[in-house]
Amino acid sequence: MKEIINEVAQNGITDEELNSARNYLISVNRFDSESLAFRASHIANLISLGYDLDFYLDRESRIAATSKDQIRALAAEWLGQENHYTHVLV
Hints:
The chain is 71% helix and 0% strand.
């Protein structure tokens, strides 16, 4: 697992991986949105965190607009060795 994380942190992702992730997230979003209870809960949570309704409504367009450069920058920031922790549960 560490090798995969390091690979993404150092080299980013491929076009195919980005498109696959976008399609997956958009599909999950549409599936989740079929439930009125989920939509109401999700919107209420976002509003309580200070987001407006447009943040919920624009999710698919934000996902579709995500670039490899954005992923590379976030991966470099958050997936570096200094952010790796190993937890041992006994």
